[in-house]
Predict the structure.
Amino acid sequence: MTDRLNLAGSSQDEVIDFVTSLGEPAYRGRQLFAAIQHRRLRNFDEISDLPKTLRERLKETATAATLTVESRYISSDGTRRFLMKTHDNLPVETVFIPEERRDTICFSSQSGCPLQCTFCLTAKLGLLRSLTAAEIVEQIIIVLNDVYGTGAPTPRGTNLVGMGAGEPFLNFDSLLKATRIMGDAQGLFIVPHRITISTAGVVPKIRELAKIQERPNLAISLAAPTDELRDELMPINKKWPLEELLSACNEFQQTLKPRERFTFEYVMLDGVNDSDEHARQLANLLNRHKLRAKVNLIPHNPADPLPYQPSPGARVDSFKRILEAKGIDAFVRKPRGRDIFAACGQLAAVTQNIMSATKHREATP
Ligand code: SAH
């Protein structure tokens, strides 16, 4: 399994090179790329327009399907959480979020996560390993096929967010490779501006992203307006503190086109980071760095071992109003799929057994 090349993570040119190395003409490579990425076929036997001999050769040397779906949970709000397994038996989670205008898929960049954010359930897994580009692309193919049918067109296109398990910028090369493959017009054709990647603040990679022309959108998880509090909630802050992080954001901002913006995410933890004073500190911080980003306020998604509760609705509103009064656009994100452990920060390979055993607090902010 592992020694076979996973073609789900190969660009069109790489697939062509691979096929010609087997002594086949280049057009067979284009056919194969389209079969995997556009028709979303996961099994070489299904590609009936390729000669049988070639299909047999492919099966010996390559694969396009290494992830398997272990279980699938459907929320009362229509959100679907897919718990998948890698070939080496590690959990990968992907979430489908139906939305009025355009559906969104939230994918994982790592199995588990090495960061120790205190409000996130994925942190409890630790890092199992980074995913390959192929494993990132496969997640999208599996979900699209499940929701719409194998190879069926997506009615209104698809947005992707790299906000599942893991820190995407600690798996930067695979992540960018996956986004390049997914953007191919002969394949999935999900172009970079339909993709948003969220980072906890890996500063060198924010700077690297700034230099790339065709790139996904950026979101930064802040969670606190001071180093003192952020050190506590997101230990990555000790490595790259706020001043450094926000000056990298400023560099990134200078490379944006006039109407483009990036996003800050701010998880709202009851009584921890949600006071009016925190809101003023946050607004002043962003204004001092001349950042014209928008702020998404995410009410905390509770999970039993996590020591937090979501901020009450009135608190979130007050926080939002203070930001707006200081000229910052703020939006309150509606939690999706909380009942099936599919919401932000709840991805920790939770299975039906655990869900039934957990007295799940469905506190509505
Ligand atoms: N490691 C990346 C991407 C994964 S987290 C990052 O940190 O950005 C995606 C988003 O979910 C982040 O903004 C994070 O702050 C938020 N989040 C994590 N745990 C959460 C929880 N329990 N409730 C609400 N949001 C949470």
Notes: The pocket of S-adenosyl-L-homocysteine is lined by residues 119-120, 163, 167, 198-200, 221, 223, 265, 267, 298, 300-301, 344-345 (CB under 6 Å).
